[in-house]
């Protein structure tokens, strides 16, 4: 029976699995994003996130502990250098798994695992833009509570909106008038040509 044995062996021996996760963690640290299967990505997340947490304290001991897992000097310098600075204020959750569909050969669930702080597109979308307008509910209570300054501001805003609307309508009317005057001579010339043909 295998009751309660939730550890995913990934179909490998312990030494093979350990070496594979070490290599994948080094690749993730150096390239910030790798493509793999969902099962491997979930195993890698459990493997690499404690190492990133360890890298927040830059001491000889923590470097030696992380090196015992990664066995790669370049990855260690990258992890303790730029990555540790970026994730300094993040209390965990350093990686993100984005599913990308199934692989053609064996239909395995594929995904991209990436470091959260290095995806610029999602970081910019996460910060919501401030709204310039405010919604207000109409009511007697609100109207009674509104200050004279607020009433004056609303009146000024309404006046400016009306002025802009009038300008736009005037411009549209002028453009329409110009188009009709340009089309009129062309129509006259066409009618003159038709009369000449009829006379012949």
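Sequence proposed for the structure above (200 residues):
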């Amino acid at each position: 029976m295998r009751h309660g044995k939730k550890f995913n062996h990934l179909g490998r021996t312990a030494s093979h699995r350990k070496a594979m996760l070490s290599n994948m963690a080094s690749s993730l640290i150096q390239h910030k994003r790798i493509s793999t299967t969902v099962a491997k990505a979930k195993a890698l997340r459990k493997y690499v996130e404690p190492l990133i947490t360890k890298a927040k304290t830059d001491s000889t001991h923590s470097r030696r502990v992380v090196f015992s897992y990664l066995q790669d000097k370049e990855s260690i310098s990258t992890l303790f250098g730029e990555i540790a600075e970026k994730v300094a204020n993040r209390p965990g959750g350093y990686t993100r798994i984005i599913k990308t569909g199934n692989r053609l050969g064996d239909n395995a669930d594929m995904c991209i695992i990436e470091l959260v702080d290095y995806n610029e597109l999602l970081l910019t979308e996460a910060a919501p833009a401030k709204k310039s307008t405010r919604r207000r509910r109409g009511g007697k209570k609100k109207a009674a509570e509104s200050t004279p300054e607020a009433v004056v501001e609303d009146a000024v805003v309404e006046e400016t909106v009306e002025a802009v609307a009038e300008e736009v309508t005037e411009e549209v009317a002028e453009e329409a008038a110009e188009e009709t005057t340009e089309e009129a001579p062309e129509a006259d010339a066409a009618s003159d040509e038709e009369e000449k043909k009829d006379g012949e």
